[in-house]
Structure formats: structure tokens, C-alpha cells
């Protein structure tokens, strides 16, 4: 141990800083407890400022950094976003009826995430859990595509790692009937059964467009559900 510490102390400070900054937070804290040398580096404000601004580039602290350490601000931000994610999950559960959700409630949940300025790492940590309702996963996928601009291949890889890529949702929307020769036809019911992977790769970009717009213009109602695939009539699978 002493030999390894002496080796690192002989390295330039910026090299040790780079090594520490590449670690996961849990590993960084463990390393900081291993010796006085690593404690001084791993718990320094410069390291935690780097971690905070890397994870949340748009984060701006309302308080002077002199009043709080960057390490404390990092963990406060982490805890805050974890609580926001829990509130989204509870909100969607309260609004769901028979595993179905109206688009107005869905977009309200989306705005909670947007208002808190979640980063990609936050979405992975808090919304991409396989034990969660798939509607929560869906909000995370939607946010990553539209607000974070995550490339499809990167997002798909993360979905697979989190074991949620093959989870499905059914999106239904009712369109106002068309006018033909002065008469309005019947309202149309359209729907798609899509996986989260499909949305990530934009194979069903029209579905994402419906979720973004909600009930506008000719769309009377939009409903998202996590019902079983077998409950959808086969005759409607390819409805346009």
C-alpha cells in the first residue's frame, strides 16, 4: 500500500486528478477513505465541482459556493432528482386507470422531469428501472430523445443494459372524422403497439409525434396504456 501511494504522489497533480475524476462516485468516496493522500484529493472541492458540472452542465447553484462545498451541492442535487423521480412515479400511478393514462397527465409528468433538468445519467438511474411501470420508462425515453438529443444507438444500448428495451406500450388516438361532401365521417381510432427500442430508433416516430402534440387540431384524445399485447385486436394492428 505504501509503495502504491508513493507511486501516485510522484505523479503530476493533474494526472491524479484525472484518475480520480474518472471514477464512479461510490468508488471515489471509497478511494478517499483509503489514505490521507487520496482523502485530500478525492474530497477536494475541485473534484466535486468537476463531477457536478460534468453531470449537470446547466446546473447553477442559487447559493455562493463559499457557503456550501461542491460535494454537498452534488449530493443535494442527486437526492433532489431522486425525489422528483419518485414523485413522477407516484403521479403516474395515481393518474392511471386500468394501466391506462390520458395524454394530459402524461405530459404533466414529462414537464416535472423537464423542469428539474434531468441529465442522461439521472434518467438511467431513476427512470430506467425494469421494476417500474413501463409508462415511467416511456417518459424517460421521450425526454432523452426530444430534450437531451441522445443518439438512437446510444439510447438503445442503455435500454438494453437496463433490460427495458423490449417493454411495450400501446398509444391510441382518436381523430376527428373527415369532411366529405359536406358531411363529417365517423371519428377514427388509431393505435400503435410499440417497444421502447422502437421509439429509441425512431421506427415509430409518428407515435412520438402524437405524444409530443397531445390533443391538438384534429386529435380528440390520446391514451397511453401498458396493457398486455394479447388484449389488442389483431385486425387493428396495422391501422394507419
From TrEMBL:
Pfam families: F-box-like
Transmembrane segments: none
Taxonomic source organism: Pisum sativum (Garden pea)
GO biological process: protein polyubiquitination; SCF-dependent proteasomal ubiquitin-dependent protein catabolic process
A GO cellular component entry from the record: SCF ubiquitin ligase complex
Protein name stated in the entry: F-box domain-containing protein
Domain F-box residue range list: 5-51
